[in-house]
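Anyone up for a design puzzle?
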């Protein structure tokens, strides 16, 4: 879990990526926030409970500023598994920033306080079956409900995004969204041909969140060169998978063995969510039914 936190924070901490994520998710791709208007914000805060002081830390947070004036405090929280009490956690994060503004009100009597906005980005494959507001976390008697203030979180699930939404991303986050959309929906992965600005950070995030080291290994075999695309890396993975299948086939006998080795490689790609069963069957020169019978998999 710590590795996931570190890799996602590293990529999203770049102003260009952070601004792109916020503009796409909040403003439908309109360039409202510019990267040079962002400055790092304190990620950790403290709170007191049961007589003890506790610390909490956001994933990524920045001030959106106009000259030296804070327009807003914006945070991004990454989530890989559903959390029933996530709205309470987000409310606690946001409340800490509002509390700091309240504590410092004597220094800023002539200034209005600025808003706090948090985006929750969900990378998981399981449906988020929990609510996305404070009321969903509480057991409130019906007569009390009108008097219990609610608090909603800005929630975005990668696997539920449309192709049009993903296409709005201009930064390296597009490569992240494309990969996790395909992985979690088990659809054909069509990586972007966009040149990566931060290839190492993108590859680290994909490798650690998915548990698939082939992307990191392939990137390392390219000597960590710049100016590459996810399309190049993925093509090499497919070629190596096919080559491995052929090599295994030669060891078992040219004709039959090669076909079996190649088939085994295709089955592995389907299990890993890299190819759909239909696409694998086409590469093997089989019908979907024939491939199902040979592999034991079902579409």
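Challenge accepted. My sequence:
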């Amino acid at each position: 879990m710590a590795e996931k936190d570190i890799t996602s924070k590293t990529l999203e901490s770049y102003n260009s990526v952070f601004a792109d994520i916020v503009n796409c998710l909040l403003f439908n791709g309109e360039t409202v926030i510019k990267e040079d208007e962002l400055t790092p914000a304190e990620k950790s805060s403290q709170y007191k409970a049961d007589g003890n002081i506790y610390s909490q830390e956001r994933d990524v947070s920045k001030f959106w500023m106009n000259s030296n004036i804070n327009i807003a405090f914006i945070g991004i929280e990454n989530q890989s598994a559903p959390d029933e009490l996530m709205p309470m956690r987000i409310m606690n994060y946001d409340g800490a920033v509002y509390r700091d503004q309240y504590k410092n009100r004597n220094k800023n009597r002539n200034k209005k306080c600025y808003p706090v906005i948090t985006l929750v980005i969900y990378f998981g494959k399981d449906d988020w079956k929990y609510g996305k507001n404070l009321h969903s976390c509480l057991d409130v008697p019906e007569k009390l409900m009108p008097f219990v203030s609610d608090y909603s979180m800005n929630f975005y699930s990668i696997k539920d995004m449309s192709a049009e939404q993903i296409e709005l991303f201009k930064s390296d986050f597009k490569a992240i969204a494309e990969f996790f959309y395909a992985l979690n929906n088990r659809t054909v992965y069509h990586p972007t041909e966009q040149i990566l600005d931060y290839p190492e950070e993108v590859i680290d995030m994909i490798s650690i969140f998915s548990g698939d080291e082939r992307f990191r290994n392939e990137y390392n075999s390219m000597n960590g060169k710049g100016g590459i695309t996810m399309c190049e890396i993925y093509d090499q993975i497919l070629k190596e998978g096919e080559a491995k299948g052929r090599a295994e086939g030669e060891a078992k006998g040219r004709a039959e063995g090669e076909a079996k080795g190649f088939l085994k490689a295709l089955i592995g790609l389907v299990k890993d969510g890299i190819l759909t069963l239909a696409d694998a069957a086409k590469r093997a020169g089989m019908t979907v039914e024939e491939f199902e019978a040979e592999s034991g998999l079902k579409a």
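A detail worth pointing out: Residues 237-295 form one domain.
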